[in-house]
Every structure is written in C-alpha cells, then in structure tokens.
C-alpha cells in the first residue's frame, strides 16, 4: 500500500468487518435505539423491532462479535449498549448522503 495513504490495510480490513456487521436494517435500528436509550435488554429490543427474540439475539451477537455493542448481565437479564456512541454517526452520515 502506498505510504502516503492515511489508513493501513489492516485497519481497512477491520473497518470492512465492522461495516459488514452493521449492514442490515435491523442492526442499524438497534444502533439507533441504543444510541437513544443507552441500554436495552433483548426483550425491549425485539418488541420494539417487532421481530422474534431469536432474530434479535442473532443480530445482537453479530454486533457484539464485532465490538459494536457490549453486554452487561443483571441477574437473568442481559443489557446491551453501544461500545461507542460514534457508531450512530454512520447513520447520520448516510442520512445526509442518501
């Protein structure tokens, strides 16, 4: 890779994986909800999205595996939050260009 480019190939590979992880309407909605509410449990997420619990858990697992969300356990409940509020900026940027 040319030395004058600001990002390393390794960084770009990681960025690609994160973008793949968020590249689904339900996952983008989860990011928006977590940005607004700061923390939600699985039940709150799947009920707001109007999807099955297993589907919500699948999307949350993808986001968690890529470091977009983190989980905090409280008894039987798992609460999800964004690892960085800046992930919401992906939606803001897309909203300006689409």
- The CATH architecture would be Orthogonal Bundle
Percent in helix: 55-70%
Strand content: 5-15%
How does the overall form come out from the CA principal axes? elongated
CATH homologous superfamily assignment: Winged helix-like DNA-binding domain superfamily/Winged helix DNA-binding domain
Q: What is the CATH domain class?
A: Mainly Alpha
Question: Per CATH, what is the topology?
Answer: Arc Repressor Mutant, subunit A
Summed up:
The chain is an alpha+beta fold and 98 residues long. Helices cover 59% and strands 14% of the residues.
Helices and strands, with pairings:
Layout: H1 9-22, H2 25-37, E1 40-41, H3 42-49, H4 53-65, E2 69-74, E3 77-82, H5 88-97
Antiparallel strand pairs: 1-3, 2-3
Helix pairs in contact: 3-4
Could you explain how this protein is built, in words?
The protein has 98 residues and is an alpha+beta fold. The protein has a single domain, classed as Arc Repressor Mutant, subunit A (Orthogonal Bundle), CATH 1.10.10. The chain is 59% helix and 14% strand. It contains five helices and three strands; from the N terminus they run ααβααββα. It has helices at residues 9-22, 25-37, 42-49, 53-65, 88-97; strands spanning 40-41, 69-74, 77-82. Strands 1-3-2 form a three-stranded antiparallel sheet. β2 (69-74) and β3 form a beta hairpin. α3 packs across α4 (53-65). The protein is elongated and about 50 Å long. 14% of the residues are buried. The model has no long low-confidence stretch (mean pLDDT 95).
